[in-house]
Automatic annotation (TrEMBL):
This is Sugar ABC transporter permease. Its main location: membrane. Pfam families: BPD_transp_1. InterPro entries: MetI-like (IPR000515), MetI-like_sf (IPR035906). It comes from Rhizobium indigoferae.
Amino acid sequence: MTLSLTSALKPTPAFSVSYLERRRLFFILMTLPAVIYVLVIGVWPLAQGIWFSLYEYNLLKPARTHFVGLGNYIDLLSDTVTRGAFVNTVIFTVGAVTVELLLGFAIALALWRDDRFNRICLALILIPVTITPLVVGLIFRALLLADYGLVGYYLAEFGISNPRGLFANANSALATLIFVDIWEWTPLVALILLAGLKALPGDILEASEVDGATASQRLRIIVIPLMLPSILLALTLRTIDAFRIFDSVYVTTGGGPGNATNTLMLHAVKQGLEFFNIGRASAISNLTLICIAVIAAGFILLIRKADRKANGR
């Protein structure tokens, strides 16, 4: 009697299979909206951009649309404006990310100790990160205007900046944009590196201090090698973001004076929305995407290598 009752209470294989199928279907239905969103917002525009880049396609002359293959990409290699935009993008990325990493690491070391004062300082320095780049660009444009800017007026009065302002001078416009980016994103780098510092094994640091290692020796021999994954993560995020800079440049200089601050993304937008050359704009955007993908792949490989080295594998 007991055996028959127990066997009757056990689920049949058909019930188990049906439950697993329903569970699988439930998860598929739950993820389906996200998949559709990615396909519509991400994959489809990317595919369209690749397709348009293979055509000579101008919205003002739709009847002259024809297939050119890689012609748009080849033309970009010989275009001085595109080469200048690429050089400006590289200078901006290298300059901004390098300073952000150094300053962020110094701030992270200063805030390493967990006390109330450091927590308040961390909350305050994170304020720039909460402001969108577009608004940050508008704020600094208003501050640095030579006519009525709160800072720009005195810089022009004392002869430190051009009479028309820092953004109007071809020699200082790109450097000023780099400074704006550093002001906004250094706190984010500091936060990432601070998280890496707090994850370091305290016993190793205490043992090195007992053994008589100085602060600089601990920093050079222990802290920095163990921090490499966090450092590379911060470099990856900021390099990718800085390479596709657009908003702050658009609202402050518009790529000027001349093409002194013209970047790849801004150049693509100008080609598409000002000259309506969709084929060339798509080619510029795809080249930017390729550069970002190469940068990301290189940093990911370095992060994995640094992580294996830090864990002794």
